[in-house]
């Protein structure tokens, strides 16, 4: 989905998103012991690289009903949403009602362990297309003091599922 209506520089280049990108990258490295991407250049350059990465990265906050607060270009394209639509979406709505209990169990498991690297589940785009996510890594987004700010996910494999009557 083209994102021509989105001011791309403003999406990843705000101080808040540069900071969030650093939290995502630092937390991923802390939990997994490896880098999500090559961390070259300034924090702004890293935020740009994260947004343009050839794999999906998405996250939500810690609200009672967590709201999506970050999606890179791949996430926006897969979920068929603009940045504004994506970041106004409760995270639970990325799964259809049948899959939400399984999604909650996965988030609880990741929350308890700090991260998981074996998630597989069905998600639904903003236009209603279902897709199967495989080999996803889900991790807690934490700051240097260990405070949790949300959860994030990354994956590079998904399959669109056929439409059902």
Brief description of this entry?
This protein is α+β, with helices and mostly antiparallel strands.
Can you give a write-up of this model?
This protein has 165 residues and is of the alpha+beta class. The chain has a single domain, classed as PAS domain (Beta-Lactamase). The protein has helices spanning 8-12, 15-32, 43-52, 73-78, 83-86, 100-113; strands spanning 56-60, 68-71, 115-124, 130-142, 148-155, 157-160. Strands 1, 2, 3, 4, 5 and 6 form a 6-stranded antiparallel sheet that branches. α2 packs across α3. The longest helix is centred in the first third of the chain and has 18 residues, at 15-32. It is globular. The relative contact order is 0.16. Mean pLDDT is 91; it is low at 1-8.
The average pLDDT value, as a whole number, equals 91
Tell me, what's the shape?
globular
**Remind me, CATH topology?**
Beta-Lactamase
Instruction: Report the C-alpha radius of gyration, rounded.
Output: 15 Å
Ends distance: 25 Å
CATH architecture: 2-Layer Sandwich
**CATH level-1 class:** Alpha Beta
Task: Enumerate the spans where pLDDT stays under 50 for 5 or more consecutive residues.
Answer: 1-8
In helices, the fraction of residues equals 25-40%
Task: Please give the largest β-sheet.
Answer: 6 strands, antiparallel
CATH H-tier superfamily: PAS domain
**Topology as a string of helices (H) and strands (E):** HHHEEHHHEEEE
Q: How large a portion of the residues is in β-strands, by DSSP E?
A: 25-35%
Number of strands: 6
Structural class: alpha+beta
Helix tally equals 6
């Amino acid at each position: 989905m083209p994102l021509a209506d989105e001011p791309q520089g403003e999406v990843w280049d705000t101080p808040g998103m540069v900071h969030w990108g650093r939290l995502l990258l630092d937390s991923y490295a802390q939990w997994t012991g490896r880098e999500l991407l090559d961390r070259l250049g300034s924090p702004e350059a890293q935020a740009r690289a994260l947004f343009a990465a050839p794999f999906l990265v998405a996250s939500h906050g810690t609200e009672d009903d967590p709201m999506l607060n970050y999606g890179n270009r791949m996430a926006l394209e897969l979920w068929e949403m603009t940045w504004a639509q994506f970041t106004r979406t409760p995270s639970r709505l990325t799964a259809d009602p049948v899959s939400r209990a399984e999604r909650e169990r996965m988030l609880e498991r990741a929350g308890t362990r700090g991260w998981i690297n074996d998630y597989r589940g069905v998600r639904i785009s903003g236009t209603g297309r279902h897709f199967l996510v495989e080999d996803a890594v889900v991790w807690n987004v934490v700051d240097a003091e260990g405070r949790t700010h949300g959860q994030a996910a990354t994956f590079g494999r998904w399959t669109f599922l056929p439409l059902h009557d």
